[in-house]
Design brief:
Elements (H helix, E strand, L loop, with lengths): L1 H38 L7 E10 L8 E9 L8 E9 L4 E8 L2 E3 L3 E13 L11 E12 L5 E10 L10 E12 L1
């Protein structure tokens, strides 16, 4: 009897925690959009070619290694969002190719925070890490220093996940050093 009561309490707690997490994440998203709408009054930046290198699967360490990435980041805005395309390869043979949107949030004249989201096509299951589905979603946040010539040097942290498109959804992370070169 006591175990049934404990299960019911646990079920009710989980039922409350999940909506609370959704509310917190949604609230954070709205806050980012509000900040971005005021912060994006900064002078218009050009499009960028971004090259990045870093540590793939640094968190879970199922099949860690190096990741190298190349992106084109457009300066064209769709409301608050700028589109980008991305391609990445990890030293374990995994590849990711996709496209998404980003927001540049300027913190003064020299610092830029860039949250982004991309849908990617993944290949390269290894013995140590199977991401479970060819469609992987990449969420990322980057903090970069913006030089006078508008180039940027920053650090980013990314999370890849298939959003439960498959039963297996281990996800993985990458910690990257990014350099964005402006296109004139």
């Amino acid at each position: 009897m006591a175990s049934i009561a404990k299960q019911e309490t646990s079920a009710r707690a989980d039922g409350i925690v999940l909506p609370l997490k959704v509310i917190v994440v949604a609230g954070a998203g709205v806050l980012i959009l509000i900040i971005a709408s005021f912060a994006n009054t900064h002078e218009k930046d050009p499009s960028f070619i971004t090259v990045a290198g870093g540590w793939f699967d640094f968190n879970r360490k199922h099949d860690e290694g190096a990741e190298f990435r190349l992106e084109y980041r457009s300066n064209k805005k769709i409301w608050l969002f700028k589109p980008f395309v991305t391609s990445a390869v990890a030293s374990n043979g995994m590849t990711f190719v996709g496209a998404g949107v980003l927001i540049d949030i300027y913190l003064g004249p020299n610092w830029v925070v860039t949250p982004s989201f991309a849908v990617t096509w993944w290949q390269g299951k290894t013995k140590g890490l199977d991401l479970g589905h060819p469609i992987e979603f990449r969420s990322q946040v980057e903090m970069a220093y913006r030089f006078k010539n508008k180039s940027r040097l920053g650090l980013s942290i990314s999370h890849y996940s298939n959003a439960k498109f498959a039963k297996k959804n281990p996800g993985t992370e990458a910690l990257m050093l990014n350099y964005s070169s402006p296109l004139k």
